[in-house]
Amino acid sequence: MSSATLTSTGVVPPGAEAAAPAAVAAPAEETRRARTSAGNPGVWWSGAIAALIWIAVGAVTRFIPNASIGFTEWNLTAEFGTGTALVGGLLLALAVIGPRLGAVAPVRGSGPWLIALAALTAVWQLLTAKYAVLPAPFFAPPQALVEVYLDDYARLADSFWNSLKLLAHGFFLGAAIGFLTGVGMGWSRVVGYWVHPLVRFIGPIPPTALLPLAFFFSPSSYAAAVFLIALATGFPVAVLTWSGVASVNRNYYDVARTMGASEWFLVLRVAIPAALPQVFVGLFMGLGGAFSVLVVAEMMGVKSGLGWYLTWAQGWASYTNMYAALIIMALLCSGLITLLFGVRDRVLSWQKGTLKW
Amino acid sequence: MVSAVIERKREHEAPAADKAGVVGSHIDIRGVSHRFDLKEGPLPVLDDVSLDVKPGEFVALLGPSGCGKSTLLRLVAGLEPPSDGSIRQDGRSITRPDPSRIVVFQDPTLFPWRTVWDNVALGLQARGVLSRERSRVDEALSLVGLSEFAKTHPHQLSGGMAQRVALARAIVNEPSLLVLDEPLGKLDSLTRLAMQSELVSMWQRTGFTVLLVTHDVEEALFLAQRVVVFSERPAKIKADFEVDLPYPRHRGSPRLAELRHHALGLLGLDATW
Ligand SMILES: Nc1ncnc2c1ncn2[C@@H]1O[C@H](COP(=O)(O)OP(=O)(O)OP(=O)(O)O)[C@@H](O)[C@H]1O
Ligand SMILES: [Mg+2]
C-alpha cells in the first residue's frame, strides 16, 4: 500500500492530490507575491520554477540513453520526454501570462508541490530507465506506466468500475447493518445483552480469516466478496455507533422527555444526531477496513476488479501492470475518503472546528 | 417588542382562546423524602419536604449548594419518583414527565446539532403539532430578543444567549407549571436584571405557576411571592415566608432590604451583612 501512495505522487496531476497542501502553502505564497509584486507584477514564481524543472525532466528523458540490460527496452521513452517538456512549456506559459488573465488563483498554492513532483519524476526516471539502479522487472520507469495505461485501458477501467461497485455494495450493506446494530445495542437493554457479546467475540477476528466460511455459505463468489467487505465495514461502525449512543448526555433525554417526546423521538431525534460524530469515525474506520480486504475479497471467484488485477499481474510477474493498478487503487481510496469527508462536513456542519481532509 | 407580539396574537386568535388564560397548576408536595443509592450506601437528599404551591403562585427556593434543590425539581418534573411521600399536580399524582410541567435546567442543554429555531421548536415537534404552531416559535424567540439568531447554531451563542434560548424553548410549550433551576445563573448582571423583569411580566401575562431555584437572595425577593429556605443536605424546609410587596417591585425598597437581611440570616450569612 505504502509503495502505491509513494509512486502515485509521481504521476497524479497536481489538481487532485495537491489540493490539501495548497491551503497550507497559500499564506506563504501570498506574502511572497505581495513582496515581489512591486518589481515584477504577476509572475507565478513557484509555477515557473516547476515548469523549468518539468522541461528539464523532459530533456533528461529524451537525451540520456536508456540503460540496456538484457532484453528490457522501454517503449514510449521519447514520447514521454516530449510530453513532459510540453507540459512544462504549458505550465511556463500559465505561470507567466496566467496571472494577468486571473487564471492562476486556484492552483497558485500548489507550486511547491509541482516542483517536488517534477524533482521526484526526474529521480525516478534516472534510477530506473537511465541507470537501472532499481532494476527491471521489479521497478518500472514512468513511461512504462503510461504504456500500461494506453495498452490495457479497457481492462483497467473495467476493473475500476467493478471494484467500485463491490466496495459500494459491501460498504453500504455493512455500514447500514453496523449502524442499526450499534443503535440497538446502545438503546435497548435486551439487544445489548444478546448482541454485545457476539460483537465482542466476532468483531476482532480479521474478516479475511473468515474467507473459507464466507465462500462456503454464500450463494455466489460475488456475494462472498460483498460479505467480507460488509464485515470489515460493519464492525467499527457498530462499535462506534454503540459507544456514541451510549455516551449521549443524559440531560438531552431529560429535556426532550419533559417536553412530551416519545421513545421514537428520543432515538431518532436525540440519540442518533448526538451520536453522529462518533458514527462518522466508525464510517472512516470501516472504509479503511473495506479497502484492506478488497484485494483478498477479489482474490477468489471474481473475474474483474483492481484487487483481482493486482493478483493477476503479480502472477505473471508483470510488476509494471501491478504498479499501474496500485496507483488507480490509491486514487480510488483517496477519492472515496475525500467523498466521505465531504459528506461528513455537510452532515456535521453544526460542529465547530472540524478537521479538513 | 413584547407588546407587539401580544398585539399580533390578539389579531390571530379568537378572544376566547386568549393564551393569557393558561391556568397555573396547583402543586402539592407532601412528606417527600428522597435518597440516592450509592455504592457507599444511601445518600439522603430530601427529608420530609412538604410544600403547597397555589395555582399561579411564584415560589422561590433558596438553599445551600448541594442541598437537594435540583433533585426536588426533578421529582416535581416527574423525571424520577420520590423515595417517600407524594407529589400531586391539580390532585393527580405525578408519575412521569408531562409537557404541562416544563423545566429549564441549570445548564441550558441546547441540542448542538439544531439551530436556535429548531431548538425552540423541540417541544412542539415532539408532540407533533409543529406544522400548525410554527408562529409560536417565532413569538417565543422575539420574546427573549433572539429573532435574528434563529438560524445560528448553539456553539455560536454566548452563555447568556444560550440560557435565553432555553427559556424560549420552555415557554413555547405554554406550561401550566414552569420549573426554573437557576435559569439566570450564567447571565451577566445587566442581562440578568432585564431578564428578571421579563420573567415577571411573562408570568403576569400568562398565569402559570413558577418554581424557581436560585442562589441569589435578591433575585428571589425581587421575583417571588413566596420564598422557601432549605437547610443543608438532607434538605428540610427551614423557613417559608411571603414577600408582601406589589409588582412592579423596586430593587431599592426598604422592605426588600429588611427581607434580605431576614433571608440571609436563615442561610446563616447575616454576619457578613
Ligand atoms: N443522580 C444522582 N446520583 C447520586 N447522587 C446525586 C444525583 N443527583 C444529585 N446527587 C447528590 O444529591 C445532592 C443534591 O444534589 P442537587 O443537585 O439536588 O443539589 P442542589 O441543591 O441543586 O445544588 P446546587 O445549588 O449546587 O445546584 C448532591 O450531594 C449530589 O451529589
Ligand atoms: Mg442544582
Give a quick summary of the entry.
Chain A is built from 15 helices and no strands.
Count of DSSP-assigned helices of chain B: 9
How does CATH name the architecture of the domain at 27-107 and 175-272 in chain B?
A: 3-Layer(aba) Sandwich
Briefly, what CATH class of the largest domain in chain A? Answer: Mainly Alpha
Q: Architecture of the largest domain in chain A, CATH level 2?
A: Orthogonal Bundle
Structural class of chain A: mainly alpha
Identify the overall geometry of chain A.
Answer: flat
Domain ABC transporter (chain B): 27-257
GO molecular function, one term (chain B): ATP binding
Family (chain B): Belongs to the ABC transporter superfamily.
Pfam families (chain B): ABC_tran
Descriptive report:
The complex is a heterodimer of chains A (357) and B (273). In chain A, helix 8 crosses helix 14 (306-315) and helix 14 (306-315) packs antiparallel against helix 15 (319-347). Chain A contains 15 helices and no strands. Chain A has 357 residues and is mostly helical. Chain A is flat and about 80 Å long. Chain B has a domain at 27-107 and 175-272: Rossmann fold (3-Layer(aba) Sandwich), CATH 3.40.50.300. By secondary structure, chain B is of the alpha/beta class. Chain B has 9 helices and 10 strands. In chain B, 33% of the residues lie in helices and 23% in strands. A 6-stranded mixed beta sheet of chain B has the order 6-7-8-3-9-10, sandwiched between helices. Residues 1-19 of chain B have low confidence and may be disordered. Chain B has helices at residues 2-12, 69-77, 116-120, 122-126, 134-143, 159-171, 189-206, 217-223, 254-266, and strands at 27-38, 41-53, 58-62, 84-89, 92-93, 101-104, 177-181, 209-213, 226-230, 237-242. The complex binds adenosine-5'-triphosphate and magnesium ion. Adenosine-5'-triphosphate is lined by residues 36, 38, 43, 45, 63, 65-71, 106, 233 of chain B. Magnesium ion binds at residues 69-70, 106, 181 of chain B. Chain B: GO terms for molecular function: ATP binding; ATP hydrolysis activity.
